Amino acid sequence: MAAQGWDFLVLRSDLHQTKIAPVTLAEPADGEVLFRVESFSLTANNVTYAVAGDQIGYWRFFPKPDGWGCIPAWGYGVVESSANPDFKAGERFYGYWPMASHLLASPRRSRAGFVDEAACRADLPPTYNQYVEAPADAPHQDHRSLLNPLFMTSFLIDDLLVDNGDFGAKTVILASASSRTSMGLAWLLKQSGRVKVLGLTSPRNRAFVEDLGYYDQVVLYDDLPTAPVETPAVLVDFAGEQAVRAAVHNRFGDDLAYSCLVGITHWEARSAPAPLPGPAPTFFFAPDRVVKRRQDWGPGGLETRYGEAWEGFVADTPRWLTLKDFAGAEGVKAAYLDVLGGKAPSSEGLICRP
Q1: pLDDT digits (tens, 9 = 90+) for 32-65
Q2: Average model confidence (pLDDT) for the chain?
Q3: Helix or strand or coil: residue 3?
């Protein structure tokens, strides 16, 4: 009898609609490997993948029929069976997995791990197709799953700012200050001391954001029009909400030196873009920056610089972050709906174990 697995699917036209779809697991054909998805994190970043799935191509990594989609997630997979001589059962890798029990892949072994060469992924950003070996005794594994993709984006935005002299700004304004990518960037900016760091947040998250100690100034969204802010300023927008972005642009106008659009944490409050005073918002796509810096810094250059920053940041996370496990398909569903509905506090890290 063929082994059974499952996919966790969402309706692409309505992210609240989900289903757990049974899957008959095929034996790997020549060159293929069947991976068991061991664990992955769930954050607002995964919602961004779904919201931007058509524009950026996230639905194409693990394509599904009939209007349903499988959201990608960062975590760990283990070789369950292999018809590829370069892979053996039990090998473990970190990378970009489906929200599912298994992945049948066409991997090509690389120096650090492997590259998934599935045809559907051929023209997608190469960063997402690269997997690295992950020994079971490596430190900070759940933290890596949860924070590494987000902090890498934080690191790359900070690098963009450094590369441009912070665009001459005295203050960097981070919208959605309780999002972990925002927190990572705030930590980096605070460490450097180059500029003042202002976090925009809601009343619900104010105490948490203030207690972090990463922000020099914490301002509620409604208080922005009258808050004292040193200019010129830069906006890094993790919220993706037109009303928030408009409030900043209308407040500062030409005193806003740069406007960077990153995430969509306020995904349900999106609206059509409208002309804004000041600089046109520029979308930041982390994989493009990765390609640039790997070319600029040569083999291992990005990884070395990033690793130094990562160790400092992750060492501080036990002060504010508690990990929370969710088991099986129903656990994945519960975790996803919590994140989608904004019910998962930033102080909790959600780890799914299919």
Answers
A1: 999 999 999 999 889 989 988 888 899 999 999 8
A2: 92
A3: coil
Half-sphere exposure of 46 (CA within 13 A, CB side): 33
- Nearest CA to 70 out of 332, 345, 342, 334 is that of 332
- Helix, strand or coil for residue 124? coil
Q: Which long-range contacts (CB under 8 A, 24 or more apart) does 242-245 make?
A: 242/269, 242/270, 242/271, 242/272, 242/273, 242/274, 243/269, 243/271, 244/175, 244/176, 244/200, 245/175, 245/276, 245/281
Per-residue DSSP letters for 219-260? EEGGGGGGS---SSEEEEESS--HHHHHHHHHHHGGGEEEEE
Hey, how many other C-beta atoms are within 10 angstroms of the C-beta on 178? Answer: 24
Between CA 239 and CA 266 the distance in angstroms is 5
Identify whether the C-beta of residue 323 lies closer than 8 Å to the C-beta of residue 329.
no
Residue type, 191: Q
Cite the beta strand spans of 91-212 per DSSP E: 92-98, 102-105, 107-109, 113-116, 130-133, 171-175, 196-201
267 versus 172: the higher-pLDDT residue is 172
**Residue 131, SS3?**
strand
Write down the residue that tokens 């890094």 correspond to.
Answer: 236
Contact 256, 234 (CB under 8 A): yes
pTM above 0.70, yes or no: yes
Q: Which residue has the tokens 């191509």?
A: 57
Evaluate whether 70 touches 108 at the Cβ level (below 8 Å).
no
